[in-house]
Amino acid sequence: MTNLIPYFAAAVGFTSVLLAGYGIASYFGSASDSARLRERVSGVPAATTSSAAFSDLWSKFSSLFERMGARISPKESEETGKTRIALIQAGLRAHGMATRFQGAKAVMAFVLGGGFLAFRFLFSPDMDLTYTSFGTLGFAAAGIYGPEFWLKKRIANRQLAVANELPDALDLLVVCVESGMGLDQAIERVQRELRNSGPIISLELKILTLELRAGKGRADALRSLSERVGQEDLSSLTSLLVQADIFGISVGRTLRVYSDAMRTKRSQRAEEKAAKLPVLLLLPLITFILPALFIAIMGPAVIVLIDVFSQLNG
């Protein structure tokens, strides 16, 4: 009877995998049928089956995060405003994104901490209570502060992309302004021209154009642009444009001077990275290349010395 246990386990596993595959196939099939039905009713081409299924799954997770975040998010408007500004600077502008972010942090803390506890009770039941407590707290803290680290990294990458795209946008602005366009028309033209080569700065300039069309003052719209991006060079540019608008200074001359300064700064940033490269290569050189080189050079001599000393001792 005991010899039949492996075959019984294999049959149970095969049946489970078969049922799981059938369930997944039926789920994607129903999603495809509903997508085709929506396409036939609305006349709009629907997305592919996999993208529709993943979007449905993501919407479920988003609703879960939003419900969780609504319960644990801070009630102070100042803290909520800081989180919202950070998400906007990272390019995440969806409605309720701050609440979802807080909910995602809570869910990740619960999942990581609970996963560590499950691992402890299933695979290491003899673990000390102190290590269990510290491990649970450590994984829960990773779930809380991990999204914060990811958000800061995303903001830094986006600001670096804006810093690299800004000189080209300024050159186009100079050309448009000096050709006789107004500043609002020049901004609109530049955001159209930079859709492919500078998508981030193009999106921000498009939002600026929409705000100007909606009747927002130019100074307020420029300050909103600076707050949305949070990049130092762009903030300085918006301050210069606001001052030029207030005091009646030539916008074209201001843009040309600042464009030259930005291009020089971008070149200096590239030279700084090139100067740091030998120092960054030093660690992998010492860790990986030099030991292999010493083994290849000194290895035969060490083998010969070992043979000589063994013969002397013999």
UniProtKB/TrEMBL annotation:
UniProt KW keywords: Cell membrane, Membrane, Transmembrane, Transmembrane helix
Cellular localization per UniProt: Cell membrane
GO-annotated cellular components: plasma membrane
Membrane topology qualifier: Multi-pass membrane protein
TM region(s), chain numbering: 6-28, 103-123, 129-151, 279-306
Domain Type II secretion system protein GspF: 170-298
Pfam families with a match to the protein in the record: T2SSF (PF00482)
Keyword Phosphoprotein: no
Main location: membrane
Protein name: Type II secretion system protein
